[in-house]
Amino acid sequence: MSSSRTFLYVSVAGASLLSLTQGAAADPVADAGQPEQRAAAASAPAQQLGFDLAAGPLPASLAGWSKVTGIAIAAQPGNLGDHTAAALHGSYTAEQALVQLLADSGLGYRFIANTQVVIEALPATATGSGSTVLPAIQVTGEAPQETADGPVQGYRATRSGTGTFTDTPLRDVPQSIQVVPRQVIEDQQDKRLVDALANVSNVRPATTTGNRSETFNIRGFRVSDYAIDGITTNPALEASEVYRDMANIERVEVLKGPASVLYGQGDLGGMINLVTRQPQFEPGIAGSVQAGSYDFYRGEIDVTGPLDPGHTLAARLIASAQTDQTFRDFRQDSTREFGALSFLWEPNEATRISLGGTYTHQDLPFDRGLVAVGDEVTLPISRYLGESWSEFTADKSELNVRAEHDVADWLTIRQSSHFDWGTAHRLSADPQTLQANGNLTRRATDQNDETHATDLRLDAIAKFDTGPFAHTFLLGGEYAHGYRNLDLDQATLSPINIYDPNYGAEPGVFRHRTDRTKVVDNYAVYAQEQLAITEQVKLVGGFRADFFDMTDTTNGVESVAKGSHVSPRVGVIYQPIQPISLYASYATSFVPQAGSSADGEAFKPEKGQQYEVGVKADIIPDKLSATLAVFQLTRQNVLTTDPNDSTEQVQTGEQRSRGVELDISGEILPGWQIIANAAYLKAEITKDNTYSPGNELVNAPKFSGSIWSVYQFEDGPWRGFGFGGGVQAASRRQGDLANDFRVDGYATISATAFYEVNEHLRFSLLGSNLLNTHYIETPVSRTENYPGAPLTVMGKISARF
Question: Residue 731 — φ and ψ, nearest 5°?
């Protein structure tokens, strides 16, 4: 049975199971009484929320509680007016906070499902059986407060765990962190991760390694991996085995600059963290169909809900499939199937256990894009320089386990595990050298990859006070293992003329060329302190000690990198008033380098440092936020050619980027959402034995930015209609470190219109690159330049129940 057919059967079975179990679920109601005597079946949400409520009249405090939790309150008028509540600061579940507010008031409560709570006088204080019950007063809260791993309301995120491994307000993290919420992904109909990341300043697509997967440039430096729910992918890979499907992504987060203090070995530019969609106890089913230019078709389904009457176990099934001919002159379609199945078990308020698995299969044409002629790329963007048999086929499976337990009100223990397995096959026509007559020499490659990875992490998070100081202390340890085996055969292949391609060439006799195995093992311990000295002054500091062992064996020749590295980080935040945070920070990164110099000295890890200062501000309180950052990154110990022996390398290279960024997101007026960014970047070589100092880094525009905004009518005859659009732009970029060729700057315009018939049905239409601008999205080298898509139109129908 094929993998896609197996996945289809599993999807249908999972959807049927959820439908049957949701039908058996009921909304229990607890009896009134003392808070600790409520019925267990009518439990309040168990997630930890942040409260900052001053002491005062009980009605005002309860209104604040309702705003944070999103739970409506019903109370008899005479019960609340004469009571006061103590101040409430810190992290509590909804119920823990309510108990604190009602302490010594003589009032009790009962939850009605998870959406409403009734506040009543306890029986001991009743005036008698003849008392008249007055109409209830509804104190209705806004949407539930955002959490670091939960949905975002609208375009503006306020919290994240990417920069601290704790649920922290973005304004309390002394580095730039940008979040692209699910609603942006939906409104833009983003099909690729790179589309979502276009909403973040100084993040650009890098090579796709021949149309296999995505890598990125952040602040001028290539980033080859990313994290999923806080755990990085296989450390033995230079790029993922597959493209990341967007179906189960709740939010895309980018931590700018070095992140080794939390994530270990990694690239200097930053860390991309994909927060996945989790099971919900509220039953729901959603689906969409999408169709557009170049025979693009896609379908998604999302089913979630409880699996038991007590609402302690929930599941979620998400699946998608797509096919696409693209604007390139490929001789085959691009296809991808994706599935994600996850479970959430909350046996009590103190314990949360999640289990999730994903599977991706893709079959794509191999494609290195266009070649540069002279000092520019001028070929038609549809020109394909491969063959009909050139393709990438890959499968990837992932398993994630996470368990959290609140040992005490102040202490949480968390264990996170990630496992993945991948296989890939590449049969490709590889470009080599462009000749004066326009012939591009090529060779054929037959390559097989096998990969697997394991990542185990254990954290303890303590929140406590010492005198006037408030602490959030993180202590953790991690073990990461990565493996990749590459087996490669090559054969001769006829050239192709780039101006008048004649397809149909077949490979010669394949001969074995490369057998490479890379194994990475890394052990680490780390600690972090988030210290609130006063309400205005906060510090974040930490360090991580990594002990790494990397072996890279190619055709029997072994290169080893073994040692340890300490990565510190420190930052300070000053908040003169609540809506404004001023911050400064220093952070570091490292990447082990296998091999040694001509004199036998082992290469040291490549190192990176960043200095950053910035401002985070609410332009419109609780609606529209902005981050302005100024930074300098330096990359050291870069391998460069040995001036005494061109066949050897030495570690004297250095690169640097400096820049300014502005990111804005949120709501300008009711119904009017915006996400925008602008950046200036100077990324250059500062030391090298091969390239001239002052040369610009590849694909690092000096000026870039984007804006996307939508408006939806919330009432009146046009209620449900919406429209919007945006612009993406970048200045010219260098195509290689020698700066021998460049690609032009560009600007593309997009527009959308949509209509929400009701809360269940939505129609949307999107036009991208409306002016049909010809541009190169990603330059990599003289024989690898990926063009941007021309004018495309996409339609989508979404349903939700």
Answer: -80, 180
| CATH architecture for segment(s) 31-139 | 3-Layer(bab) Sandwich (3.55)
> Mind listing the pLDDT tens digit for each residue in 602-643?
888 999 999 999 999 999 998 999 999 999 999 999 988 878
DSSP 26-64: ---BPPSS-GGGS-TTSPPP-S-EEEEE-SEEHHHHHHH
Joined together, the tokens standing for residue 729 give 């732009």
**CA 189 to chain centroid:** 16
Q: In the 8-state DSSP scheme, what is residue 123?
A: G
Pairing of strands 351-365, 159-160: unpaired
Q: Which amino acid is at 780?
A: V
d(CA 79, CA 116): 17
HEC assignment per residue over 509-530: CCEEEEEEEEEEEEEEEEEEEE
pLDDT tens-digit series, residues 521-533: 999 999 999 999 9
Identity of residue 776: I
Distance CA 664, CA 677 (A): 6
Let me know: does 274 contact 190? Beta carbons within 8 Å: no
Query: Structurally, what CATH architecture does the domain formed by 276-800 represent?
Result: Beta Barrel (2.40)
> Half-sphere exposure of residue 399, counting CA atoms within 13 Å on the CB side?
6
Distance between CA 631 and CA 376 in Å, rounded? 31
Domain boundaries, the chain: 31-139, 149-275, 276-800
SS3 call for 465 = strand
Question: How far is Cα 207 from Cα 209, in angstroms, rounded to an integer?
Answer: 5
The model's pTM is 0.83
- For residue 58, what are the contacts with CB-CB under 8 A and spacing of at least 6? 80, 83, 84, 85, 101, 102, 105
Alpha helices in 630-773 (DSSP H): none
Contact 45, 69 (CB under 8 A): yes
So what's the architecture of 149-275 in CATH? Beta Complex (2.170)
Report the half-sphere exposure of 346 (CA within 13 A, side-chain side). 23
